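Retro notes, structure queue

What went well: the backlog is down to a handful. What didn't: a couple of records were mislabeled last round, so from now on we paste the full input next to the output in the thread. Example, using ATP-grasp domain-containing protein from Catenulispora acidiphila:
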Amino acid sequence: MKNLLFVGGARPVPISTVMAEQALAQARSRGIRTHVVNRPDALAGTPTVSAAADAVSAVDFVPSEQTVAWARSRARDGERFDAVFALQEMAQVAVAEVARALGAPGNEPEAVRRIRTKDLCRAALAEAGFAQPAVRLCADVRAAADFLEELSKSSKPGPWVVKPRDAMGSIGVSLVRGIADLPGAVAALPDESPFLIEEFVEGPEFSVEGVFLGGEPRILAVTAKEKAPPPFFVEVGHVLPAEISETEHDRIRDRVAAALSTLGLRTGAFHVELWLTADGPVLGEVHGRFGGDWIHTMLQHAIPDLEVFGLVFEDMLGLPGTHTSLEPTRGAAVRYLVPPPGQVTAIEGWEEVLAHPAVLHAQLLVAPGDIIKPLRQSSDRAGFVVVGADDPALARKLATELVDSVRFTVQDAPADRLPGLWSLT
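Corresponding output:
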């Protein structure tokens, strides 16, 4: 029996627990024994994930050296781990370090740290000749203003984007059109750590989903994404596969495959974000994991009989492949519910959405009495609908119609009831 160490398990949020449960089920169906390690509070908040694993241990995977020490101790006691895996972004470094310590398949820790640190990833790609937006690591507003002045003198008038150096879910990401916007953008960052400011790239956004098979990237689909209007960059919809020409599709695939090779990745899954500009694809963030926002559900509909997690396990463990085709033959889409901010007094039409035969998964994340915050990060979205169809155009149309059919009645809420920095102004 093969043994899989599943680092980080799940966070106590719906998409994370669903993905972890599916990964564990796909491992079990292949005769793989699973051992989940996670922080004690996360284990307590994800009991269904723990129940689906063969073994569970409380280990803090950040900092990663604690997981490495734990894994070495278990190995000395006779427990064997043939592969190491994680879904969570913050567990990827621990996975790479444990894999190297145990001699299991995996990416080099240096490569994982590079892609997880956005400015280092940009520097590595730019050095290899990939088009990249100018970026600067800044400690404060003054340093960011100096960078904007430098760019303006070099005929790069903006706008620009302020973002955390290491975060996810659109937290703290905002558009600035000039130096006067910097104080507000910096105040919206999640903490006082050094942050990034980079050029804003014009062009539609996409992501590329795939896995490594035999050390080579295998692209499963290109996904089109839709974001809320600036100044924030929250994703409100995805369509898979993207409705683009074959030429555009090939240019994206070739550029992403070359970038992954340049960055030294070779094992597991990947999710690469990019813009399609007049001069070709410009790569954004690179992740050594599956994408969020229910992209795994869309992939498994668009490619019939695909089990995305099982595909990774088969490759890492040298098991016989169970998939004959890895090309999308259907379409899927996800659309998020983004009602106006305020206090919810009524929601209508949701039961009809759940009853629709095209719905693959849907969840309402607010109820009457809850406060809806202004849309500034992914956690502010009020729910979602994932649909599957015969082609992506129909999936996109259905997802939009279903989300638009949900009617929210919202009244203004007192500003002091809105958490944190949020306000209705």
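Agreed that this is the format going forward. Reviewer comment attached to the example: Confidence is low (pLDDT under 50) at residues 416-425.
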